Protein 1
Amino acid sequence: MNVEPQSLEALIGEFANLPGIGRKTARRLAYHILTRPKEEVAQFASALENASEKVHACPRCFSFTDQDICPICADRIDAHALCVVEKSSDILPFERSGIFKGAYFVLGGVISPLDGIGPEQLHLPLLIKRVKEENIEELVLALGSSPEADSTALMIDRMLDGVNVKRTRLARGIPMGSDLEFVDEITMLRAFEGRVSL
Amino acid sequence: MNVEPQSLEALIGEFANLPGIGRKTARRLAYHILTRPKEEVAQFASALENASEKVHACPRCFSFTDQDICPICADRIDAHALCVVEKSSDILPFERSGIFKGAYFVLGGVISPLDGIGPEQLHLPLLIKRVKEENIEELVLALGSSPEADSTALMIDRMLDGVNVKRTRLARGIPMGSDLEFVDEITMLRAFEGRVSL
């Protein structure tokens, strides 16, 4: 006998739509929701709607914001360095470390012909325009470490041929605190190629 | 610089409140929500409120239902066998297998003095009352396999001293399809103790 009420089934389906959440976890989460006070669930529901309604892409850098312009763009309007990332959440580790004082630009992904993502699906034309029009001295290409990210960085580099802007990418090597024994081949290759004198 | 809008932070906090969801997963889910169309998020939000409002405990068996009385209680009102489980979702594997045709009773947990859960925090008194008043012939105690579950089963057994009702519990042993090499000691102990003649 199907013992789950229809509204519970619907909620399981919604949880199962989330990335990385399988059917079993979705069921566990939905049953958990039913054990919580109605006010608590209503607060969760309104947090969902609130975030969805208020948060949008910053018109300058395409990071998520609830302001007209994001706080970083507003604060660093004269930045001479621009860090290009794939997605909004990639900005967090930079700001946590505090190492970078420039502005950001969220590309919205990387070029991937197999997935039908070309330069037009990304904010690439706007990036090129901005670099050409503004007084940008350094462009840090901080786009993941996939082959697609590498070729996107290469394409950006080519599109800026003749433009006087320094292009850099993040160093590749052994991450802090990792055991050498468990480092994968590609990382080891990159770390060895990029070895520096003591 | 804190780059996350307040409404995004609030949503991350709500996801992180869910059991088994850490801060990193919560952030990933919240960022995912921001990439979805507003209508889709509104549907998720209303599924939450809908389930929370419509679903309640069945007054007879305490399983989750959106009816006055749950479909199983309504269908098996004359059942002579009652299966006692800890929580509502424990009913699913029984109904999936189709092996049990009786009614259920959700205890709401097991006795755990360390967590302050005594017989009064559970539906134990109601269970005893129901067994005494109704024509129940067999009580299947299908509580988990923790020491607390074992002592709760024992306590139910004692509370029914003098009542003419057969009490059973589920068999313990090697689950189907499992590799003997990876069976834990306690399961092996129970499986060996409970070995049967061919």
Protein 2
Amino acid sequence: MVNVVTERKAEESHRQDSANLLIFITLLTLTILTIWLFKHRRFRFLHETGLAMIYGLFVGIILRFGVHLPQDLSDVTLTCAVNSSPTTILVNVSGRFYEYSLKGEVQDSKGHDVPNAEMLRKVTFDPEVFFNILLPPIIFHAGYSLKRRHFFRNLGSILSYAFVGTLTTCFVTGLVMYGCVVFMKVIGQLGGDFFFTDCLFFGAIVSATDPVTVLAIFNELKVDVDLYALMFGESVLNDAVAIVLSSSIVAYQPEGDNRHTFDGSALLKSLGVFLGFFSGSFAMGAATGVMTALVTKFTKLRDFPLLETALFFLMSWSTFLLAEACGFTGVVAVLFCGITQAHYTYNNLSAESKSRTKQLFELLNFLAENFIFSYMGLTFFSFQHHVFNPLFIIGAFLAIFLGRAANIYPLSFLLNLGRKNKIASNFQHVMMFSGLRGAMTFALSIRDTATYARQMMFSTTLLIVFFTVLVCGGGTTPVLSLMQIRVGVDTDQDNSVTAPDGMTQRSTKHESAWPFRLWYTFDHNYLKPFLTHSGPPLTSTLPACCGPIARCLTSTQAYENAGQLNDEDTELILNDGGGLMYSDMMVSTDAHGMPTPSTSQAGLYSLAGTSDDPLDRELVFGGTRLVLPTDEPPDPLTSFPPPPPSPPLLDPLRHRV
Amino acid sequence: MVNVVTERKAEESHRQDSANLLIFITLLTLTILTIWLFKHRRFRFLHETGLAMIYGLFVGIILRFGVHLPQDLSDVTLTCAVNSSPTTILVNVSGRFYEYSLKGEVQDSKGHDVPNAEMLRKVTFDPEVFFNILLPPIIFHAGYSLKRRHFFRNLGSILSYAFVGTLTTCFVTGLVMYGCVVFMKVIGQLGGDFFFTDCLFFGAIVSATDPVTVLAIFNELKVDVDLYALMFGESVLNDAVAIVLSSSIVAYQPEGDNRHTFDGSALLKSLGVFLGFFSGSFAMGAATGVMTALVTKFTKLRDFPLLETALFFLMSWSTFLLAEACGFTGVVAVLFCGITQAHYTYNNLSAESKSRTKQLFELLNFLAENFIFSYMGLTFFSFQHHVFNPLFIIGAFLAIFLGRAANIYPLSFLLNLGRKNKIASNFQHVMMFSGLRGAMTFALSIRDTATYARQMMFSTTLLIVFFTVLVCGGGTTPVLSLMQIRVGVDTDQDNSVTAPDGMTQRSTKHESAWPFRLWYTFDHNYLKPFLTHSGPPLTSTLPACCGPIARCLTSTQAYENAGQLNDEDTELILNDGGGLMYSDMMVSTDAHGMPTPSTSQAGLYSLAGTSDDPLDRELVFGGTRLVLPTDEPPDPLTSFPPPPPSPPLLDPLRHRV
């Protein structure tokens, strides 16, 4: 009989779980339908994530105030003589042993005043769900869809913003918050402990800007590619920095809550943790990416797209598990795995797998993202330990504003000293305005809500996310037009409209800083040929003594390609500087997906012929191949529409808002 | 300090979980690479699922005998005065409350002789994972990819095999097993209780045949379409029957283990449970399918394939959750949802969403299937309560053989009395031989391994699965050629090669039984126009009094299509009988995905002109549109290659083995 009761209860619990998940699925379905309605009616003010959040808020209100379930009083409190809380305990109930697993510590288990706490507790997910299930596909997708060309061209600036900038934001925010907390303590507005490390932790979690909302708008409006690359690169990488940074700050105070003075060895340890976590996760991510590239290169898996896609998916997932199993940060590893996969493996995939993997991760990203945002809305009402402190909230908003400003403006000034292609002040304002906080900030803040400080942080963070997503996200379009940012830019087109002399072709390469050029040469000569079918054969780039190895590692396709560079990234990185002359002609596809170049072939070939540098000539031929990827050039009389009446050069400003 | 220790333990446990999952991911990756190697070398003897199983076996051996981890002695046994085992308990450890959730009853918690039990226990998944995560995508994919044309033509036979046949198998197997168990009891070979209901339960779980392995081979070899439809339809539906049947049998003995005599009311209750579960799950599945069809019909979601795919995925998933939340069987609901989605919603999707949804569920199915099979291999060594009883095993093999025979041969005989297109005896032998047991049988048997009877069942079931997948699966190709089954059949081609008079065109419709014709007419006149854009407008099929409603529900596209039937299924169901004359000409696409009909248009149109029945003429036009989905007929002189030199009629036997 006991057994039957237990089984029935387990069944009941399973049904309840299904019903809860169903709430979220319904929410997401509603969100999708409303998004469609918005898109259909060209209503751009509210992004889908904002919408998901608002729906979540409504459901949260209903669950909190509308539904009244009979309280489940089956909780049994056992008072035990054990002096630790093991992960598993066996309970001996009249001769039968039952296994129980630890779910976590419960605060003030009885005596809360919320009427249907049980119901609310049921719709609460384990915070680790975010880190282990929902964030990885989002972050991987971000890495996998980095616009490589402009990303690599702005690599230095992006890394500066992501590392130096995020650290600056974190410390500035932390210091402002510390000032605020000290002030609150003085006037007696603080209801619990709040230490300096808590302030720094808060700084770390709110310094992760979200790539989702703003970039969706950027993408839709086809905003200036350099601005896009800077924003996207920064927000993707600073997620990684923020997550490692917050772990390091937690590592600073491992001894419990009793010591909160400055400690040199703890600081060193934190620094070590930061560097170790970051480099370890980076290495894991890159390693599995490289392994996938090698496997897809040296097998003929491309004949079976299903197998290839499955392998790609599993290897990418294994990055996460490997990093977590080794004690590194899975989410960070997944990001670098995504970048590596996009840079190398993607070139080895069959055309079908390319679209399959893209679509798969696009879908996973979409679902996970909207799930997180609707959960965010819901948890605003279902979370039972909110601590809303007006002073703290005002301080926090001030702090994130100052923190963001301390990141963008000084760094941009410093970067502009070295950049030929300056970051204009209107770009800086947009970057300042568009620093939304989203999924990563939420996941980091909900991870631990045990103490008073963390609860106050969580509540404040939720408000910050709501505000930035709804107000900053919604205001992006007006701000873009206010700041006169170019929109409607073809992503494969360059923005150097200011130098119409046709000689900027080689400038991108030369204008790049030397570390980038060094990396580019290494990547192009050794890594690309080693990991993909493109680039020059290794036999020609490696020294003669490595001949046998080079022959083994070079695929037959690489030899075939030896004369002609069909390395997409090369074109993307090096050739874009010369995009002016035929920028509007490059890769504009008609409705049937067929390329429709709008100038004749002769012009291109003659342009290639006038170039002195043989590499550049190759590159222009590369560009030609990009425009017309057919082996026999089709007859322009029958296949292509006539060139458009107005050549793009006549009106360089027509893309401005 | 206590807190820190707990956290560290949770972290350790998380790392261990990641490592375990990594084992499976590595296994799957290895499987994929080996499958590729097999496919690459055209080695067809072992299917991927068999391979996954064998790899799982190896890893199981290594974990069991190779790895020796220090025993984790953190289990604490509490002896409590509570007289039930609640799902959640709070443990008061020196003032702090920890929440523990019930994992299940533990048998002989101490004193087992396996050296690294902890390690093995760690790689053991909760059996509910199979029902809630892994089976749904497999079953949905099966429903979604049912070959509709031949499925509906053989619907009566398929339903007979699935319902009457599976019930027969279950009872015959159960009776044989009961005889075996009684014999074992007499000679003292039985180490525990084994009741008649246990025998029936065993019969139910081993009566679920697996559609995976054999049909993969059938698909690859392009086996006769009717045989394919019979096998696929039966094995997909009998999964549903078996799962509901096993629940009903469990419901027969709810009072505990003390009464095992015949009980009329319990039998009635079982019957009620069976009918209730089945019809409820069917209704849920069909309802969400219909809802998805309506949503995709009445919104213009097709302009945004990502949204459409996400909606499709979420709605299909919600079927499962809805059914589980209402206490029905989610897996069964998902099957019928899949069939409904394929029959209605699929027609409303945009071309991109069609391929996206297909590819997505193909991938999910592939991953889940291989995961289950590798887990099966692993659990053979990691499961710690195996009861291998030679007599029982021999009895079980005999019982499944007899049970399968009692399903196929008598039913085929009865069905052949009514069928015009007889089920040949070689088809029957193949169906008899190819009744593999797979994922569903495994999931059902691992769900409950608490008692001696269930443990013996589980061990025996594992052996049956191994044997059938490896031996029967591997032997399918030889058996097909031994039985002289036609292979290399175009799936869009009919098998009625024996009536080359060109007048079989209408025979398929007339040869179908009246319930099918009734359903077909209803579906074609009312459901199709209501749920999709195809079929005749509702305004013309509904009575005049329903005019306003009909106008609301009919899409503009349906009016446009009114003259011409572009209902794919119609063609598939009704037109296939006439496929003989131009069967090899239909829908053969060239490498660029463009249709290349191999006879001139004139022949088709004249064929259409000679038909008396206006419906049939429409249908032939429908076939024409299928061949050439362009609005302006292209010039045959420039667009199409010349007709092939040998018409298919000259050599009707060339497709035979």
Protein 3
Amino acid sequence: MVSSCTKYELRCNECGKSYGNVPLSACSECLAPLEVQYDLESVRGRFTRESIAAGPANIWRYKELLPIPEGFQPDLPVGFTPLVRAKNLGKRIGADNLYVKNDAVCFPTLSFKDRVVSVALANAQAFGFTTVGCSSTGNLANSVAAQAARLGLRACILVPSDLEAAKILNTQVYGARLVRIDGNYDHVNRLCTQIADEYNWGFVNVNLRPYYAEGSKTVGYEIAEQLGWRLPDNVVVPMAGGSLIRKIRKAFRELIALGLVEHKNVRFFGAQATGCSPISHAVKEGWDYIEPQRPNTIARSLAIGNPADGPAAAKMIRETGGWAEDVSDVEIVSGIQELAETEGIFTETAGGVTTAVTARLYSHGRISRDETTVVCITGNGLKTTDALEGRFEVERAVKPKLAAFDEYIREVDGSLVGAAQELVLAGGVQ
Amino acid sequence: MVSSCTKYELRCNECGKSYGNVPLSACSECLAPLEVQYDLESVRGRFTRESIAAGPANIWRYKELLPIPEGFQPDLPVGFTPLVRAKNLGKRIGADNLYVKNDAVCFPTLSFKDRVVSVALANAQAFGFTTVGCSSTGNLANSVAAQAARLGLRACILVPSDLEAAKILNTQVYGARLVRIDGNYDHVNRLCTQIADEYNWGFVNVNLRPYYAEGSKTVGYEIAEQLGWRLPDNVVVPMAGGSLIRKIRKAFRELIALGLVEHKNVRFFGAQATGCSPISHAVKEGWDYIEPQRPNTIARSLAIGNPADGPAAAKMIRETGGWAEDVSDVEIVSGIQELAETEGIFTETAGGVTTAVTARLYSHGRISRDETTVVCITGNGLKTTDALEGRFEVERAVKPKLAAFDEYIREVDGSLVGAAQELVLAGGVQ
């Protein structure tokens, strides 16, 4: 598999200054964020439905629109996760055309971060970094640790000290150096900016951020392709830094511009936890700025009190005619259970947020029941089992005897003891 | 998507008696296991490389050779997991052509059991069962609970009472009734046979076992297809009941018979934990029978002391010129770490078994370094984090100040504090 031949470079979002390709995330002139811009015309004809279908069943089928350095051979099969029709959840919340984009099973580390990390590390190698790192609320740490190990890069990963045990283990097991910081994510992130400068390490979400962020577009490409090359009416996206929701929209706009899908104004809905809802608040208030908050929520992967892409995300949401909602910790846990019980998908707290927010958007009439809506589930439930602690009774053990089982079942769940079920043996099954 | 039109039925492996299609797993005449047999000639021409490539990126691309009842519309995108080239692990253990088949990220519940359950439940519905269940060491419980929820079936799941906390939670969260049995897996399984009869429930690995087992063939189909329609020289497979390893071979034989791959005698290597190694022992001793053991190992998903397919698996392994090995609990944990550190894949204890056994097979010269070997990783590490408890130091939290970080890093990992790294900015990255 050869790397993309697409021309791309970093450019300032505000003043338009060009930077070529360097490990830099902010404009030296006006301090605005830098973004990867592509020569779309050089892509036309090379990024088609057919060329994509001929590609592998992972994100690299979209490599023409990813910042892949020349000579880089992507061989890790990241992404291209299931898009499932959510009929049962839809019945419960009054949604007839509901889909779940399920990054809870993303390869290799069960969150959408695998996408952004694979793109960032491709560039880290090209820039000559031998040590990479990140500031993380958990999923990013897992992904950087795993992918760096496979690429033979050293990894030094900084996290808030109260990170869930599973996420800490799921980072250390790959041999990465994990550093717990006595502070919240915003403290960690600030420190990483300083470390990146002093140590010359490639921090995927600091000095490699513009490249890293592009990986999120693949969620958008996949949604469009898996819906049969059409765009949904709505997308519901959890917001931490505010980058993912913007990149999904960027992906849709690129597909429209290149003629792979018909034009449609997709409405974007942001989901946050009430205990850390700076962007949701800005959307509801109609602000163009973010009022930072001190995070206080079990949804720790969304616990970014001062989100880098916050103002831009709020603005974009309103532009598309979307909205944002935030939900309590109690609703988050209910959301996790609801998705599990209806669709058999076990998501982490961020997914509980997104599910609960989706339900609210429908019940408040912000989305009509017949609209096609994709709910972005970004991480796996096994990463935040703490949130469900004590929620389920672990009952007494039963002796391995039929009589003991009979007695137990009558005691705990009489409804399971029905009249003998009639078996439909339709003259042999076929 | 329409269901398979392939004719199939249950037949006794020993006396050949036919049963049509019924929820039955043993022959009433000679008590041998029943197996699904296909009219392969009716499949020829409909199961081709092209027809498969045109199918979806999941196990249903192989539906022509799966027992799918007429009228069943598979819509859950199970399987088609990554097959990754394991260069780093290979370097460490002296294997030049090593691959990992990674079911640790299988959809929906992160183990290969998702494959067998989806096929079993398709048949459960056709037989009219409204409650399904299983006896399980964990992964099967998760999968039945999740998939039953999505299909609207009740689920009653029985497990040994000492099952890992994550596996218990990852079953209850879907709304399934989980019953802890005061005994080991073999006790649980025996009890389930009695319950299946009395309650008329569809136990996927008891009365639906022949259909369930066929789902494992998809591991073999995928390996062959992902290697470019060729068979490997060797496959290393963990063994609990002994079914998976046999079904992978069945899949390879079907592909050869139907002309999708060239004939090759693939060698099969079974992997067990020394603390529960009845099949490995039988292979090493050259026995045609199993001497049951009382399991005592952290690899609880392989803790089946009296494996149903044990004798047949041992016989098959020797027929192919393969071998079996078993490893200690210490080696299992090292195996988990080794796979994580080299390939960025975090597997559960069963995967640690398989990785450690693979290393031993190469170091003992049973597999030569240039041979193509696929290592089957069957479940995710987040399910057995208990096994790694205490293995990694959770160090003190560091103040969010650069000076504090500097001091900390010098103290714990001086090698990370190198001379400023030279960045290779190759005249812009492209």
Protein 4
Amino acid sequence: MSKSMRAIIAIVITLGIWFSPVPAGVKVQAWHLLALFVGTIVAFILQPLPNGATALISLVLAMLTKTLSISQGLSSFGNSTLWLIVAAFLFAKGFIKTGLGRRIAYMMTQAFGDSTLKLAYAFSLSDLIIAPATPSNTARAGGVLFPIVKSLCLSFNSEPGPTARKLGSFLMLSVFQANAITSAMFMTAMAANPLIAELAKKTFNIDISWGTWFLGAVVPGLIALFVVPYYLYKAYPPEIKHTPEAKDLARAELDKMGPASTAEKIMFGIFILALVLWATSSFTKLNATLVALLGICIMLITKVIDWSDVIEEKSAWDTLIWMGVVIGLAGFLAKFGFIAWLAKTVAVALKGISWITALVVLLLVYMYSHYGFASLTAHVTAMYAAFGAVAIAAGAPAYLVALALAYASNLCAGLTHFATGPAPIYFGAGYVDQPTWWKHGFVISVINMVIWVGIGGIWWKILGLW
Amino acid sequence: MSKSMRAIIAIVITLGIWFSPVPAGVKVQAWHLLALFVGTIVAFILQPLPNGATALISLVLAMLTKTLSISQGLSSFGNSTLWLIVAAFLFAKGFIKTGLGRRIAYMMTQAFGDSTLKLAYAFSLSDLIIAPATPSNTARAGGVLFPIVKSLCLSFNSEPGPTARKLGSFLMLSVFQANAITSAMFMTAMAANPLIAELAKKTFNIDISWGTWFLGAVVPGLIALFVVPYYLYKAYPPEIKHTPEAKDLARAELDKMGPASTAEKIMFGIFILALVLWATSSFTKLNATLVALLGICIMLITKVIDWSDVIEEKSAWDTLIWMGVVIGLAGFLAKFGFIAWLAKTVAVALKGISWITALVVLLLVYMYSHYGFASLTAHVTAMYAAFGAVAIAAGAPAYLVALALAYASNLCAGLTHFATGPAPIYFGAGYVDQPTWWKHGFVISVINMVIWVGIGGIWWKILGLW
């Protein structure tokens, strides 16, 4: 399909929604924003232009039509998650420039390097270990793991382009998808999880303790952490699979690298500092973005990276634009009341249906409505309480509802390349094209639903939650 | 002086202000912000690190010490003037990439090219012609003139670095300084000028019409437009001065370029569209940033520039960071009440002094307090009404006060490299180092004061304003 044809499809869909009758209860402004948002997503999939250009055009159209004011339209460029994403790209730069990333990558390879699948599991395990103590999933996947994953890909000469499929494509997608699962497993593994507990208490009078959350998640979570990388290994296989020689190669490379340089040691110190600050943020109340920016500042002061490294980090600026626009559009879609209207409409449509059917339908709608969100927190804020209340009103056991929706709030993170902070970072690395990202995102969401609702349902029955 | 010595000076000054007693009537938070702001400015001058790194460190310190919250600290990255500056860099990219900038530059050279000073006057004249119809001085100097100036420098092989002084340094500074003068000359030549008229009416009951404004400004304005480029020509001379062969060279180059390409024609169309939309913005109410972004979008759609041109435009991202931080720090300095306190303190100190002395002192404080502002609008909003009221209360003729402060509100734009939107653009081009920028900025502010208050004073007497 030619690029102009693809652009025309996106424009026709936008105009189709824009000029179709506005449902009762929806503001005209919200409806127009929906048209622009859907058009943007269609253009993201069809790619008539790079994402950044598409996003900029959508933003200009939103402001030109007064759907958003100038200050509303630009406000999301000051969003703190957006700057955490930018900072993660710069963190990765420090890892790569000092050679620390290569060193850690070779050490991982030395330990697990005889198979690519094992490497993916090693990363999932690393994520799982720090997850309970790192409430920002973006800091975890973007700040901690991404630089190492990227260094590992580079050390196997797998770069965006013809060599992407050697190792990088599989590993990027696998590590990203595992992060959604670890986020679901602990109340302290994702920023909005404590908010979920709070909403459950306030809205349905259900106390979810840290232990209850983990107990409900541990069985489906561990199964998913095993199954999802394996699915990707089969469905989206890396070209390099068995690497029996890799361990020796890694050992030789480590010998060649010799002892760590000063810059590398400083970078390691900054990394540990950031990890500790991210992990203790529940106590210190230090914002994850601030911690990341502090790390960047120390890198600049100690000359681990130069200012030119910062302004030449194209992927950071690319992501700043397109993710900034998506955060803005999605945010105002909720702010203008569209999401609340959608939740209410679904709720009304479900009246008089058995609770099991109602809960499954609600879970599916809740999960897949995340195609319209650029933030897990925004999704939870807009829909968790309403959907939970409807399910409980339909007769579903309250604990089951509270937990199932809580887990779904995290698992939906794998759907798109803008679903959550780590998504634009791993996508922005350039190893996976957009249709592939979305296709596997959808399949994995189904796998997760089967594991969490199917096996999880039995597990929760054993636990006596329903 | 070593870089660490320079850093220590900035740190000591910051700590000195931070820990010195907070004057009565100033919030502790505002005082701490002042310490960080002054420290940032000192570091901008001494350059222990590039401006972007300094700015990022200041921002992190402000958020780490809770002087600014995370959302306050990052909010200025959504500022609309900031994005107009970013857009101006991208506009210049389109000019240069298509060759349109070179063509216009050669045409200017063909017409005025036998002396560099004449070229500077030609740019001043171009600015003056569009000034009454282009209320955004950033759009005028950044969007319209900057791409042509930059192209002209490049076509004379004058680039940042060793060849900067050939032509670029003089021309950049001269065009920038002339913009401050044209801004002062028309009520419609700078965004905050209508606000000044509004404040004058509301606070001192003085009607400043478009005609009165211009009448008061025309004599000192034209003199300043003649004197300031000449001063720079003598004090900061370009290496290429007389270029009698330049006209022939330009003609030959134009012949060599042949007829305009499609991309060049499109770029010209976009330029004219932007110029018309900027010029008619008083009627259409179209925001200058929106117009600029619209232009960028058309460039992207028509492939005049690619998305990679956008994300590789380092100067845009450099400026986004340091100017974003400065706008934030300066904005909150006003929001936290520090500027209002400063105005009140000056007012109190001036009680019981003759009106001429009072007015001169007030004008000087008003003018040079702009070292603490990153926006003319912010300066006007914070100080115009208070300073005017004090001067009138001291017995100064109301019209004289209203107009003198109005002109000073624009002339202060030449002081720093962050004083107004065009400043970071011309400074960011890299032809003039920071000490030079500030030195000539200060000298020209004195020249302007002498012309506007001295000769202007006599002219206003003739007009019967006092």
